[in-house]
Amino acid sequence: MRFDPQYATYLQMSCCHGRIGDGGNARDSQGTIYYNLLSGDPARSGIWRLRSGGSPERIGALPAGQFLNGLTIDAAGKNLYAADSLAGAIWTVPTSGGPVTAWLASPALAPLEPGPQEPAAYPIEG
Fold this sequence. Notes:
By secondary structure, this protein is mostly beta strands. The chain has no helices and 10 strands. The chain has strands spanning 2-3, 11-12, 20-27, 33-39, 46-50, 57-61, 68-73, 79-84, 89-94, 101-105.
């Protein structure tokens, strides 16, 4: 992954091993990028932070197999919210890092049927 300050909203992720994907990202007023990382590896899956000139760091762990497909930051820049289409939940984690907790979980956000299908909880935006 790299962050090019010339392109403030450009984030490039690359990988060669295993299944991995970006399930949404958000940027704060200082230029820090937060992103959801989808991975079959529990040590990588979760919510990550990338400060300008820094290295990626996981600030919130989630079990492998979640389907995070949206990320937003609150107006105060203190909390992140990530939609999870498989769990039917919106997770939250402080931007400083810490435990990921369910901010909202509801059957209304869950998939209608188990198995491959359209995601249930769609991306959230700030």
